[in-house]
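User: Sequence in, structure out. Go.
Assistant: Echoing your sequence, followed by the structure tokens.
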Amino acid sequence: MANRKSVVPQQGGVLKEFLKQAKLVGRLIGDRRVNGLLKLIPIASIIYLVSPIDLIPGLAVPVLGALDDAAVVWIGTALFIELCPPDVVQEHRDALNMEGSGD
């Protein structure tokens, strides 16, 4: 039982990872080397999150209504990062890791 791996990251947890991903997306959106059309992906997912239009209405199915919003943002973020130039993504990840090492 001592070798069991945790699903939740031990170094700061899920919230820290979420914030790091959000910072990465923000940095990539601000980078001129990333195609402008790609930048529409995370922007569109945030617009979906705040818009009154839902794939699964929260009033009809409360838990699934919240999950579809989270899924759209998660997929939009993951897709955006995956489609960005790998060297640019790595550069920003390295910079974020350097910022975080000063904690």
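User: And one key feature?
Assistant: Helices lie at 13-30, 40-50, 62-83, 86-100.
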